[in-house]
Amino acid sequence: MIEDTYSMKINEYLPLRDIVFQTLRKAILTGELEPGERLMEIQLGEKLGVSRTPIREAIRKLELEGLVIMVPRKGAQVAQFTEKDIQDVLEVRAALEALAAKIACKRMDDRAFLKLQLAITEYEYAAREKDVETMIEKDVEFHETIFNATQNDKLIQLFNNLREQVHRYRIAYLKNVGESELVHTEHLELLDALKQRNEELAEDIAAKHIQTQCVSIMRFIKNKAVITEEE
To answer: Going from the N-terminus, what domains does the chain have, and what CATH number goes with each?
Structure first.
């Protein structure tokens, strides 16, 4: 919901045509514009200081990406998470994470292990401060380090292709589910398995880590749906 404290800001250094699209897209991916929220052209235009035309064009492009849907008699709104969307994306993510962990066991060096440990430590500090933005950043860094350690360009490319789709779900998981301690514990377990060069264990933990997220996100969505109905 767009309020006075709304933090979405426009990047004035890009061409106007791209500015609005990228700004709204980022707001959706980070959860600043929430699933189900209506996109009011006049209100968005006033907030970003632009006319309705670039807002309308951006909404059309976002609709093509599946981030926005058009609802009869209501207009544009941010696409809701569906159980199938989450299951489809996270099934692929779990398989990729497991494969990456298995390969990384053979190829990780001391520098990569230090990066993982640092990401874990900084995540823990951020969780204590309830700094969700940093938590997300360090969670991403942890998983990126493992994929980069595989030195498999195709695998890294597949992971990057899924990154933004997963980002919306990761935010829902870390911001709304409140299971940061579980994330921290599973990161430590995976790091330990990688250090042991135990491919089978690392593979299992990596897959379980994503499956845990899937279950938690599903629970969050169902709980939110119940609250909405009651309201």
So the answer is: 16-78 (1.10.10.10), 83-230 (1.20.120.530)
Would you state the pLDDT for residue 108? Answer: 96
Segment (H or E) for 161 = helix 153-171
Give the integer Cα–Cα distance in Å for 60 and 69.
Answer: 9
Burial 186-204 (b: 16+ CB within 10 A, else e): bbebbbebbeeebbebbbb
DSSP 166-222: HHHHHHIIIIII--HHHHHHHHHHHHHHHHTT-HHHHHHHHHHHHHHHHHHHHHHHH
pLDDT at 147: 98
More confident: 45 or 174: 45
pTM: 0.75
Which residue is listed with tokens 């030195």? 151
Instruction: Please tell me the least confidently modeled range out of 10-14, 27-31, 176-180, 204-208.
Output: 10-14
Q: Count how many Cα atoms sit within 13 Å of the Cα of residue 83 in the half-sphere of its side chain.
A: 10
Q: Judge whether 181 and 44 are in contact, CB under 8 Å.
A: no
pLDDT given for residue 6 in this prediction: 47
What is the rounded end-to-end Cα distance, in angstroms, of the chain? 17
Q: Which residue has the tokens 């962990």?
A: 101
How deeply is 54 buried, as exposed, middle or buried, from its count of CB atoms within 10 A (0-12, 13-18, 19+)? buried
In angstroms, the CA 68 to CA 28 distance is 9
Q: Is 14 helix (H, G, I), strand (E, B) or coil?
A: coil
For residue 226, pLDDT beyond 70: no
